[in-house]
């Protein structure tokens, strides 16, 4: 135990010394104000809309050469003002514009500007001209059918409680594929009667921007029975014997609308959490983080839950035509004050987001740990810091695990893969520790897209991550709170003090 | 033995069930529309059903409402056998309550989406009649605005641009049929382009969603160029072909794409081209056929749909999707039912109601059952007769029409389809013997096929149409023309 701590500290120190020279000191970065006062729980952060990451704000054109300024000034005032305002930059970069008009006649210049102004006018939303909402067919006899529940009275009468699908006294597998081979629960009454600790819910929302097949994520994890059973080697704990785990089936999804689907997801996740069980949501795309965490706020209070977001992507998009997509859940959660920016901890970021995204996160005070940080500090140091941050502000933690945080070598079956990610040997300990050493209230695994992987690997790794979290939850239930706990019996043949670090 | 125990007794359950079924069936046939007040029920039933109202009894006799729960009268009677009168009452009431909640309920959209004085714009969308969009989004319409040539940094004369450096270059920058690129409508016009390929990468279909990658994958696969033995022509030589790039799509909503695709395809038609559209899922058919109707008049076009799916679903909550492109086109008067031919229907998405609906609309449909019984030639001849009678044709080709053996990379595959050979000969004939005004290749899911097979097959089918169009251009329009050299003497 001590060895791990010592080596990680030593590693961190040596890394920080050797890499200190390459630390970029970009003047623009220093200009960003870092908020020092904590956000107030339940209140929308004031600077949340200070910038739209990925989008340059409209600024008046600077550095207009004199000869170009002379040409602009010959235009009617409305047109010259338009150019000077910088609005034209959204249509055409200023350098190209200057280049074009520098050799143009007066008429041509005016035509250029008219064209740009006309395009600018088409670009922005105009009431009456552009649709502002997607109308649904109210007269459909099946308007609500997609989310209507089958009455339980249609089943044979039974006492509430998890339904065990096995036939044999020797246990084993029943034949019906369920998450972690767990019994099935259909209602909150089943969860309460069964004193369920963990309810695993499939949420097959399939609206990702890359390769799609997240619809089959839950099915792939249920069907691959490997990875979810037995005893964890690091802790020698068998989560299935310690915990009451159930498969809570799937939540209804409208595959033509993220927006409609997430409301049903929020209700179902809330329904689980209200019984005291920990929901584990198997996606589905990462839009699900919004309803999942909003449901946590519904149950535990706004600003009371911290979120560790494992992902190659920042998912802080905003200012897009749709209010939610798998690139925007974090913004939506903060915009509605479900989670405070400083309680969002991102791990594994490396997709090609523009600088402005990081500037915005810095300004509003989010915590992010990119693969650059892993490169600079080493994984152990980053892991220790994430675990520390996950517990310092709030009593409760939610973990959202996008499988694309893993390197594609471990997870080819995902819709928007990015190279150079975490290994399974890095991911397993951090997930187990987060689920063990905090008061975990919910967990999700999202973006598994089985069609991209003709082997079992992606599903096996997803199941193994879920197993790591189940192990952590079981440790927590058993009262094991030691940081980085590893069973003495599970290493060094448990018979001597070869490394000299036994307590 | 009293009636209840008789009913519950296993050995007699079958007899009881049969008897009850006969009674209920008799009742239901007598009371089709209104619930008769004087239904006589057998004694066994009276005991079980004594707490039910007339409405509730009517529900149990209503095959349509039972089917909504995947139930038949036989299955219901089996359920009743294991319940007492109270439980039967609850069983029926719960089901009726569920089904009555299926439609939009007055007032269900009146909940506030402000919680703790914070706006949560999505908190009521599951209940409301519209999905809100973010109208504050900067550049709300940006994705579908076309940059005019005047704003090009480097000016050029309009016309297709050949991206090949060498005279005889095969690979290099992938384009459809290795053809030059037309960026704007002006390029199509200036180049007098006859065939313009265009990709529409929209993957919101009801099956595997990977059709957004089909345009790229087909561009990267050969099979669209060169000589065709059956037709005796090289369409890539005879025809003036261009790759018109892709039409921009909004990936989160079918609805946001409908008008833009319709307009863009319409522009391609006005530019004098025959669009070859590579989807995308089958929801695109609404926009493409609408564009054809806009420009040629629906009465002048046959729409020949090769597809395992009829795509005629009715009464769905969303207005547009792959499942309802045909019903939407018919309801909006954009296609004439008698000019619509569907070939290759099979699988459970066509139920009795679907087929009855197709028949009542007057759609000419040819299921795989018909192909099996009457033969492929019969279906081809019937289709050719229909299409040549009208003159102009639009071909909507869904990859699912082929048997998965030939194209397992289809978004909605169904076993038991037609062969590549059958598809190719029909498509070539349609394109030679009628004036084809557009062709679409829809719902290919490349990631389901680790081999080259689906992509190559798709390109060969489009090549068959190119061949037909080239044959027509050189005057080879006689029925079922085959080049003499294709056959041994």
Please summarize what this structure is.
The complex is a heterodimer of chains A (503) and B (489). With 503 residues, chain A is an alpha/beta fold.
Describe this structure in words.
The complex is a heterodimer of chains A (503) and B (489). Chain A has 503 residues and is an alpha/beta fold. Helix content of chain A is 37%, strand content 10%. With 489 residues, chain B is of the alpha/beta class. Helix content of chain B is 39%, strand content 11%. In chain B, 45% of the residues are buried. The model of chain B is unreliable at 1-19 and 21-40 (pLDDT under 50). Classes of the chains: A alpha/beta (503), B alpha/beta (489). Chains A and B meet through helix 5, helix 6, strand 1 and helix 10 of A and helix 7, strand 2 and strand 3 of B. Strand 1 (133-135) of chain A pairs antiparallel with strand 3 of chain B.
Please name the defining characteristics of this protein.
heterodimer, A: 503 residues, alpha/beta, eight-stranded parallel β-sheet, 17 helices, 37% helix, B: 489 residues, two-stranded antiparallel sheet, disordered N terminus
Task: Give the topology.
The complex is a heterodimer of chains A (503) and B (489).
Chain A: H1 2-19, H2 27-31, H3 66-73, H4 77-85, H5 94-102, H6 106-123, E1 133-135, H7 188-193, E2 198-203, H8 217-223, H9 239-242, E3 245-250, H10 258-274, E4 278-283, H11 289-300, E5 305-310, H12 329-335, E6 344-349, H13 355-364, E7 367-370, H14 371-377, H15 379-392, E8 396-402, H16 424-437, E9 439-446, H17 457-478
Parallel strand pairs in A: 2-3, 2-4, 4-9, 5-6, 5-8, 6-7, 8-9
Helix pairs in contact in A: 10-11, 11-12, 14-15, 15-16, 16-17
Chain B: H1 3-8, H2 10-30, H3 43-49, H4 54-61, H5 63-68, H6 73-81, H7 85-100, E1 114-115, E2 118-119, E3 130-132, H8 185-190, E4 195-200, H9 214-219, H10 235-238, E5 241-246, H11 258-270, E6 274-279, H12 284-296, E7 301-306, H13 325-331, E8 340-345, H14 352-361, E9 364-367, H15 368-374, H16 376-390, E10 392-398, H17 420-433, E11 435-442, H18 453-473
Parallel strand pairs in B: 4-5, 4-6, 6-11, 7-8, 7-10, 8-9, 10-11
Antiparallel strand pairs in B: 1-2
Helix pairs in contact in B: 2-6, 11-12, 12-13, 15-16, 16-17, 17-18
């Amino acid at each position: 135990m001590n060895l791990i701590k010592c080596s990680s500290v030593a590693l961190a120190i040596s890394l920080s010394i050797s890499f200190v020279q390459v630390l970029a000191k970009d003047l623009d970065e220093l200009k960003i104000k870092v908020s020092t006062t904590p956000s107030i729980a339940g209140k929308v952060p004031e600077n949340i809309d200070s910038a739209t990451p990925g989008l340059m704000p409209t600024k008046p054109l600077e550095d207009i050469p004199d000869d170009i300024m002379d040409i602009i000034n010959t235009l009617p005032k409305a047109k010259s003002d338009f150019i000077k305002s910088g609005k034209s930059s959204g249509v055409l970069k200023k350098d190209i514009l200057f280049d074009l008009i520098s050799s143009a006649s007066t008429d041509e210049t005016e035509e250029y500007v008219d064209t740009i102004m006309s395009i600018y006018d088409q670009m922005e939303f105009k009431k009456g001209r552009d649709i502002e909402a997607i109308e649904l067919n109210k007269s459909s006899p099946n308007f609500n059918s997609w989310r209507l529940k089958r009455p339980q009275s249609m089943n044979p009468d039974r006492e509430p409680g998890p339904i065990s699908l096995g036939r044999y006294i020797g246990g084993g597998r029943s034949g019906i594929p369920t998450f972690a081979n767990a019994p099935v629960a259909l209602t909150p009454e089943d969860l309460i009667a069964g004193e369920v600790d963990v309810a695993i819910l499939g949420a097959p929302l399939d609206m990702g921007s890359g390769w799609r097949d997240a619809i089959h994520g839950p099915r792939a994890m249920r069907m691959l029975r490997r990875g979810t059973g037995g005893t964890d080697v690091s802790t020698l704990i068998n989560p299935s014997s310690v915990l009451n785990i159930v498969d809570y089936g799937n939540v209804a999804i409208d595959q033509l609308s993220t927006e409609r689907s997430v409301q049903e997801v929020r209700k179902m996740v809330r329904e689980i959490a209200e019984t005291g069980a920990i929901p584990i949501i198997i996606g589905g795309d990462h839009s699900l983080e919004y309803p999942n965490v909003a449901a946590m706020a519904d149950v535990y209070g706004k600003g009371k839950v911290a979120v560790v977001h494992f992902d190659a992507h920042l998912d802080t998009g905003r200012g897009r035509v749709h209010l939610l997509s798998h690139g925007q859940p974090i913004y939506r959660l903060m915009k509605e004050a479900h989670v405070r920016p400083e309680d969002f901890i991102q791990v594994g970021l490396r997709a090609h987001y523009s600088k402005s995204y990081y500037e915005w996160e810095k300004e509003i005070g989010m915590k992010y740990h990119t693969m650059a940080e892993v490169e600079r500090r080493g994984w152990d140091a980053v892991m220790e810091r994430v675990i520390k941050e996950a517990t310092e502000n709030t009593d409760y933690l939610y973990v959202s695990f996008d499988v694309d945080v893993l390197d594609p070598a471990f997870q080819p079956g995902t819709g928007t893969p990015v190279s150079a990610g975490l290994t399974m040997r890095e991911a397993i300990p951090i997930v187990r520790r987060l689920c063990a050493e905090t008061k975990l209230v919910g967990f999700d695994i999202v973006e598994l897209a089985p069609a991209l992987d003709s082997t079992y690997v992606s599903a096996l790794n997803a199941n193994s991550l879920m197993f790591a979290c189940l192990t952590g939850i079981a440790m927590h239930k058993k009262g094991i709170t030691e940081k980085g706990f590893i069973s003495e019996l599970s290493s060094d043949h448990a018979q001597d003090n070869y490394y000299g670090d036994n307590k | 033995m009293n009636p209840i125990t008789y009913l519950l007794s296993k050995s007699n359950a079958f007899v009881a069930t049969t008897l009850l079924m006969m009674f209920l069936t008799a009742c239901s046939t007598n009371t089709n529309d209104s619930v008769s007040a004087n239904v006589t029920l057998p004694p066994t039933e009276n005991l079980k059903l004594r707490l039910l109202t007339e409405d509730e009894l009517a529900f149990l006799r209503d095959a349509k409402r039972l089917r909504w729960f995947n139930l038949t009268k036989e299955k219901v009677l089996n359920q009743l056998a294991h319940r007492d009168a109270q439980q039967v009452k609850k069983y029926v009431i719960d089901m009726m309550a569920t089904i009555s909640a299926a439609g939009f309920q007055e007032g269900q959209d009146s909940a506030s989406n402000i919680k703790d004085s914070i706006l949560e714009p999505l908190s009521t969308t599951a209940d409301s009649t519209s999905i809100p969009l973010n109208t504050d989004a900067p550049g709300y319409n940006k994705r579908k605005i076309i940059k005019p040539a005047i704003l090009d940094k480097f000016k050029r004369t309009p016309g297709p641009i050949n991206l090949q450096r060498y005279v005889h270059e095969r690979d290099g920058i992938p384009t459809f049929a290795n053809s030059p690129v037309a960026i704007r409508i002006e390029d199509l016009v200036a180049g007098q382009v006859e065939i313009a390929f265009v990709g529409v990468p929209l993957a919101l279909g009801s099956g595997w969603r990977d059709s957004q990658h089909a345009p790229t994958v087909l561009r990267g696969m050969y099979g669209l160029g060169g000589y065709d033995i059956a037709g005796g022509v090289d369409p890539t030589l005879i025809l003036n072909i261009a790759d018109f790039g892709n039409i921009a799509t909004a990936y989160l909503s079918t609805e946001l794409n409908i008008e833009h695709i319709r307009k863009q395809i319409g522009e391609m038609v006005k530019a004098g081209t025959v669009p070859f559209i590579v989807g995308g899922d089958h929801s695109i058919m609404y926009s493409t056929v609408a564009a054809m109707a806009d420009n040629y008049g629906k009465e002048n076009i046959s729409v020949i749909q090769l597809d395992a799916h009829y795509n005629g679903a009715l009464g769905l909550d969303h207005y547009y999707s792959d499942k309802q492109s045909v019903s939407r086109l018919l309801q909006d008067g954009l296609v004439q039912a008698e000019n619509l031919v569907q070939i290759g229907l099979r699988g459970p998405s066509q139920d009795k109601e679907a087929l009855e609906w197709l028949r009542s609309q007057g759609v000419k449909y040819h299921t795989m059952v018909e192909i099996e019984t009457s033969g492929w030639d019969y279906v081809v001849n019937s289709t050719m007769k229909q299409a040549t009678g009208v003159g102009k044709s639009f071909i909507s080709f869904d990859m699912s029409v082929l048997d998965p053996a030939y194209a397992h990379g289809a978004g909605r595959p169904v076993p038991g389809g037609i062969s590549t050979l059958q598809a190719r000969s029909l498509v070539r004939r349609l394109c030679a013997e009628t004036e084809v005004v557009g062709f679409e290749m829809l719902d290919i899911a490349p990631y389901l096929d680790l081999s080259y097979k689906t992509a190559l097959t798709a390109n060969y089918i489009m090549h068959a149409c190119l061949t037909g169009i080239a044959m027509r251009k050189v005057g080879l329009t006689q029925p079922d023309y085959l080049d003499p050299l294709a056959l041994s003497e």
